[in-house]
């Protein structure tokens, strides 16, 4: 999709389809809907008059209606062929994320109609009475619209041989050129949105790949290619280096597969250099390219989805893609621990004891709790590389999905400042993360009788917390944020604004968290 920002009058813009947003002004619970267009063009209002008065269209989020303008009276001055009206829900609930979803809805509605070219008008808050619509800055408006559009466009039926080519080739986001400051704000937001959405789509493309294509070696090759193109440092190591570093927790997982593991280290250095005591951010991702559970094998039902068990790694690689282009003034190192978890003659067994790189001994009780084993060494290694602040992302526990469902991912932290910075990004990213505890009183959950710790909790209660407590053993007093994204990495249900498939969760929030540490 070729996405362009256009400063123009929407009435005069010639296009196949022009999308205009609408909100519902009704506020009471049982009140009749009162849809209103977010445009000040009286011509478009006239064209939509009959539809909006009919009660058919309620401006709910994800709702669309199409009007062919050639059939409408008094629309001769309008240059668009069709008007697509896109609901954003109740006016009082308007938000950046509703706008992101509304823009995505416009793109997906155009796709199913085989429209190749689409223009979307910026919402005009002045179209409805003052104070009815929460105010959003021009920069964030532009950014959310680009993100919504770019994330909605791809379909993940990559391997279908009769794949229908219904891509949108040209997308125009249209707003008036109010003044120079406004134009600059919009251009900045537009450019940021393109970068972040491209990174998130890169992450999604990795998560979508099947395990037989995206092995740890292939993940390393794709990360390396990305770094070469983006100007990032990149080292991809395998079995020898992992054993040399004494990453025995990581190796315990990796050795049960015929596919060699990959330890991927990506480095971003700000151009102007950084002062000696400046923060160094460590992004650590779980990259299990397929998880059978190992000897503690998973049930067959649904196991095919375990190709997504590298979504945390993919989020970090995607985030580095955006960081390389947004150029924050802070050093960032990504550490990805990638392996397959397979049952094999060499596979780790329940009861095995391994010594992590940090020296901590681990009793392996369940070989399906392998993500925390690779992350244990990844987090410790990031600290030895000089990281002063850590964030990790992992499809870590089914227990987190039981606790939070699929609308919020789990958020854990040992540091209020790092955690608050992360929570503050959510207003911009629109992603759902819900904080769960990992206070020291949970430590006894992972205490082993014969080693320092064990890799599961004493029983299944609070399993997401037991996993977080395990990771906490390896971060020491380094400020750390842990994201358990197991429930949110794959969209099982299609939405009007998103297709079935990989979500790319956490990329937007991680990028903003990194930027919050930027010196400028
Ligand atoms: Zn597992």
Care to describe what's here?
- The structure is a single chain.
- With 520 residues, the protein is α/β, with parallel strands linked by helices.
- The chain folds into two domains: 2-177, Leucine Aminopeptidase, subunit E, domain 1; 198-515, Zn peptidases (Aminopeptidase, 3-Layer(aba) Sandwich), CATH 3.40.630.10.
- 33% of the residues lie in helices and 22% in strands.
- The chain has helices at residues 42-54, 96-112, 138-152, 180-208, 216-230, 239-244, 248-254, 311-326, 371-384, 398-404, 416-429, 463-472, 507-515, and strands at 2-7, 15-24, 35-37, 64-68, 80-90, 117-121, 170-175, 233-237, 262-268, 280-291, 331-341, 353-355, 361-363, 389-394, 409-413, 433-435, 453-454, 480-484, 490-491, 501-502.
- The strands form four sheets. The chain has an eight-stranded mixed sheet, sandwiched between helices.
- The mean pLDDT is 95.
- Bound molecules: zinc ion (ZN).
- Residues 291, 293, 341, 368, 370-371 line the site of zinc ion.
- Architecture of the largest domain, CATH level 2? 3-Layer(aba) Sandwich
**Low-confidence runs (pLDDT<50, min 5 residues)?**
none
Biggest sheet record: 8 strands, mixed
What ligands are attached or bound here? zinc ion
What's the end-to-end separation, in Å? 32 Å
State the helix count. 13
Mean pLDDT: 95
Q: Compute the number of strand runs.
A: 20
């Amino acid at each position: 999709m070729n996405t362009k920002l256009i400063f123009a009058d929407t009435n005069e813009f010639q296009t196949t389809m022009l999308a205009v947003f609408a909100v519902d002004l009704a506020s009471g619970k049982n009140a009749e809907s009162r849809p209103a267009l977010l445009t000040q063009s009286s011509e478009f209002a006239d064209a939509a008059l009959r539809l909006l008065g009919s009660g058919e269209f309620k401006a709910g989020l994800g709702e669309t209606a199409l009007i062919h303008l050639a059939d409408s009276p008094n629309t001769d001055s309008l240059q668009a062929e069709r008007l697509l009206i896109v609901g954003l829900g109740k006016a009082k609930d308007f938000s950046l994320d509703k706008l992101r979803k509304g823009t995505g809805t416009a793109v997906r509605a155009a796709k199913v109609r085989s429209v190749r070219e689409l223009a979307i008008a910026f919402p005009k808050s002045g179209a409805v009475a003052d104070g009815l619509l929460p105010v959003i800055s021009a920069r964030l408006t532009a950014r959310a619209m680009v993100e919504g559009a770019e994330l909605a466009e791809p379909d993940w039926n990559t391997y279908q041989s009769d794949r229908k080519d219904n891509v949108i080739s040209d997308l125009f986001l249209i707003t008036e050129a109010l003044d120079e400051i406004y134009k600059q704000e919009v251009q900045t937001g537009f450019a940021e949105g393109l970068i972040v959405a491209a990174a998130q789509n890169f992450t999604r493309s990795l998560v979508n790949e099947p395990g037989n294509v995206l092995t740890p070696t292939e993940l390393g090759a794709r990360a390396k290619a990305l770094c070469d193109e983006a100007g990032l440092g990149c080292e991809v190591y395998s079995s020898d280096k992992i054993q040399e570093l004494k990453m025995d927790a990581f190796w315990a997982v990796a050795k049960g597969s015929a596919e060699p593991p990959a330890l991927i280290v990506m480095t971003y250095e700000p151009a102007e250099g950084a002062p000696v005591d400046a923060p160094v951010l460590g992004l650590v991702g779980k990259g299990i390219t397929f998880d059978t559970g190992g000897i503690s094998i998973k049930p067959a039902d649904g196991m095919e989805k375990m190709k997504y068990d590298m979504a945390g790694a993919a989020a970090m690689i995607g985030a580095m893609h955006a960081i390389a282009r947004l150029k924050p003034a802070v050093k960032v190192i990504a550490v990805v621990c990638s392996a397959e978890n397979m049952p094999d003659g060499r596979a780790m067994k329940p009861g095995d004891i391994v010594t992590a790189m940090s020296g901590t001994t681990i009793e392996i009780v369940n070989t399906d709790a392998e993500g925390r084993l690779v992350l244990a060494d990844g987090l410790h290694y990031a600290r030895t590389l000089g990281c002063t602040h850590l964030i990790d992302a992992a499809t870590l526990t089914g227990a987190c999905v039981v606790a939070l469902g699929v609308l919020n991912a789990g958020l854990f932290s040992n540091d209020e400042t790092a955690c608050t910075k992360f929570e503050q990004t959510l207003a911009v990213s629109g992603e759902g993360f819900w904080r769960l505890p990992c206070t020291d009183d949970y430590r006894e959950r992972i205490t082993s009788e014969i080693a320092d710790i064990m890799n599961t909790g004493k029983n299944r209660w609070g399993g997401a917390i037991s996993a977080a407590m395990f990771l906490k053993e390896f971060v020491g007093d380094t400020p750390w944020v842990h994201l358990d994204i197991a429930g949110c990495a794959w969209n099982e249900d299609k939405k009007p604004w998103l297709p079935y498939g990989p979500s790319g969760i956490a990329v937007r929030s991680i990028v903003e968290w990194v930027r919050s540490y930027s010196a400028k």
